[in-house]
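$ ./design --mode recover --in tokens.txt
reading tokens...
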């Protein structure tokens, strides 16, 4: 099994056709088919099956697809890092979750760039769970994500702390809504929430003895706000993100348990390079 075979395999898995895959790869069909058969022979499994819709993955093929993507991604990341070091540049692979990408800690990043202009950033955006997995597998050097998250296996430097707010669309009588509301009042509305906050929100509502009406769960702050703008419900988002979007009305939520923080994370006990140490220290100094 080699990288070329894995790349061919992934393209065929995406196209569901040998013909389409060969065109995309700009190679003839016979050598492509040969490489796939060779891959199956080396692994001693069947990776594809023919159906009325084209070529589909077997269970073994689905498993290989998952790991093949990780292998290709790690290979590309390694090549980029080595190439940049050889060019007298340094690279930091930085993960950013979907809740944080819209509002990065600018002062820390800008100050670090002034101190170390030769450093380049390879930024990867994903949901917090996948970002954490990549940190643990050392596919990323550092990441900036938002609480809540499971910190097992991580070293964490917490950054800014902020309130959650409720974003109300025009369909509600916003003139009658106070600037700050509590959880019991919030439970009267249909709510649009982040999936990662679901457990925290539900436990808080239970403590208050009320049942929430969570009509939409999503991964992205902007998506939650967009749904709210349609009148589908009330979006619960961090305050800083709410003000980035053009919203009709924002009410602060009086609930200390729902305060959220951005955090800089890396693998537990990982031996940081001098440049990564400097990056972490810069965040600590500017976060006081």
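writing sequence...
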């Amino acid at each position: 099994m080699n990288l070329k075979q894995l790349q061919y395999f992934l393209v065929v898995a995406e196209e569901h056709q040998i013909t389409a895959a060969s065109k995309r790869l700009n190679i003839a069909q016979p050598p492509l088919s040969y490489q796939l058969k060779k891959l199956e022979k080396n692994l001693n499994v069947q990776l594809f099956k023919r159906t009325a819709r084209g070529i589909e993955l077997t269970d073994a093929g689905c498993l290989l697809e998952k790991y093949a993507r990780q292998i290709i991604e790690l290979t590309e990341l390694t090549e980029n890092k080595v190439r940049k070091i050889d060019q007298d540049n340094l690279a930091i692979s930085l993960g950013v979750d979907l809740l944080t990408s819209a509002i990065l800690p600018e002062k820390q990043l800008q100050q670090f760039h002034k101190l170390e202009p030769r450093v380049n950033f390879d930024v990867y955006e994903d949901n917090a769970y996948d970002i954490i997995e990549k940190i643990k597998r050392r596919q990323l050097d550092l990441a900036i994500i938002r609480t809540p998250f499971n910190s097992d296996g991580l070293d964490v430097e917490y950054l800014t702390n902020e309130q959650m707010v409720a974003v109300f669309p025009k369909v509600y009588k916003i003139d009658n809504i106070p600037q700050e509301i509590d959880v019991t009042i919030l439970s009267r509305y249909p709510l649009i929430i982040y999936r990662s906050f679901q457990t925290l929100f539900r436990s808080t509502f239970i403590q208050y003895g009320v049942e929430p009406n969570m009509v939409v769960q999503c991964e992205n702050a902007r998506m939650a706000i967009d749904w709210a703008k349609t009148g589908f419900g009330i979006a619960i988002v961090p305050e800083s993100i709410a003000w980035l979007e053009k919203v009709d009305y924002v009410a602060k939520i009086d609930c200390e348990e729902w305060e959220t923080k951005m955090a800089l994370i890396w693998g537990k006990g990982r031996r940081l390079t001098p440049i990564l140490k400097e990056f972490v220290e810069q965040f600590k100094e500017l976060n006081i």
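exit 0
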